[in-house]
Amino acid sequence: MKAVRIYAYGGRDQLLVEEAPVPQPGDNDVLVRVVATSVNPVDWKIRAGYLKDMLPYKFPIILGWDVSGVVESVGNAVTRFKPGDAVYSRPAILRDGTYAEYIAIDANEVAFKPATISHTSAASLPLAGITAWEVLINTAGIKAGDRVLIHAASGGVGSLAVQLAKARGAYVIATTSAKNSALVKSLGADEIIDYRAQAFEKTIKDVDIVFDSLGGEIQEKSWQVLKPDGILVSIVNPPSAEHAAAHKARSAFVFIEPDAAVLTELARLVDDGKIRPIIAAEFALDDIVAAHALSESGRAAGKIVVHVGNP
Ligand SMILES: NC(=O)c1ccc[n+]([C@@H]2O[C@H](COP(=O)([O-])OP(=O)(O)OC[C@H]3O[C@@H](n4cnc5c(N)ncnc54)[C@H](OP(=O)(O)O)[C@@H]3O)[C@@H](O)[C@H]2O)c1
Q1: Which residues does the chain have with pLDDT short of 70?
Q2: How far apart are the first and last CA of the chain?
């Protein structure tokens, strides 16, 4: 099969499009023929070696952890899926990934794809959607009426987080640059802060939940907008417990795992018209270097999808 593999950590020149063996599904696995995948920042962070102490890989590695595709075959112990089913997944990060024509995935990490959207759109959802859910629902316990600040609202995660928070009845304040403010407004944000023109920490207050997808200085400035007992949840760097205590706030760090139950919930929200995937750009698997370059620029508005096979 065609796959993109890396044989060493490094730059985009490590991404090799080549022939690789089709994976053999284990008893609990589903072999998925990949129609589309997407690029997430974690892909190039792993490629560059930034996560090598946390994630012990053996080379070569097939990167990519979002897939929408069709079940090709199932392991002996799998009863929930059959060949021909349209599925999507954010598979386990330590197994070979989705920049390939086939991937073997534990059936517990697979869900039926949303019926009303294409594989292209579905491939954009799993990793970013599970992240938005894990932060807002499982960690922050979002409820109707909460004031929620979502940083980088035009990003892959942010564009879904805004819609999920709105679907839960929250009041959403979103940071974005002017060029993406119409997009973010269209996702349902109640208040937009153009981060290049306004200091968010001087503009808003009494926030229940800060969704931090930027870290660093933005995270530091975010404490002051929280209500007492509000929560800052970061997906980038663990927040300081001391700073949380000084602001009488709570804090959490999230690094997501596969979650098929959440994918099933997300599929329902998509099919009910409550969430729509936002696609920034589409690439062929052969153009994976350009797809990484766009993700690394930090400027993509929505998700970067990569086409792999026919629907
Ligand atoms: N811990 C986890 O499990 C987990 C899961 C998913 C993602 N992540 C991490 O979360 C981060 C975000 O991921 P992503 O996929 O959403 O990234 P992304 O799609 O690449 O984010 C790009 C967006 O960020 C916006 N942006 C950049 N700087 C900004 C600023 N100062 N203020 C407001 N918006 C800004 C850009 O908008 P403009 O062009 O308008 O500036 C762009 O639309 C990454 O570091 C990723 O690795 C962690």
Answers
A1: none
A2: 17
Between helix 288-297 and helix 41-48 the angle, nearest 10°, is: 100
Can you give the CATH number for the domain in which 197 is found?
Answer: 3.40.50.720
Judgement on whether residues 99 and 210 belong to the same structural domain of the protein: no
Number of domains within the chain: 2
Residues 209 and 290 grouped into a single domain: no
| Range(s) of the domain holding residue 227 | 129-253
Does residue 271 form part of some domain? no
Ligand 1, atom nearest to 215 Cα: 45
Question: How many angstroms separate the CA atoms of 195 and 217, rounded?
Answer: 13
DSSP notation for 132-174: HHIIIIIIS---TT-EEEESSTTSHHHHHHHHHHHHTT-EEEE
* Separation CA 28–CA 175 (nearest Å): 42
In this predicted model, what pLDDT tens digit does every residue of 135-144 receive, in sequence order? 999 999 999 9
From 230, 225, 231, 175, select the one nearest 205 (Cα to Cα): 225
Residue nearest to atom 26 of ligand 1 (CA): 152
**Which amino acids bring their CB within 6 angstroms of ligand 1?**
40-42, 128, 131, 151-152, 154-158, 175-177, 179-180, 195, 213-214, 218, 235-236, 254-256, 295, 298-301
Q: What is the pLDDT of residues 211-233, one digit of tens each?
A: 999 999 999 999 999 999 999 99
How long, in residues, is the chain? Answer: 311
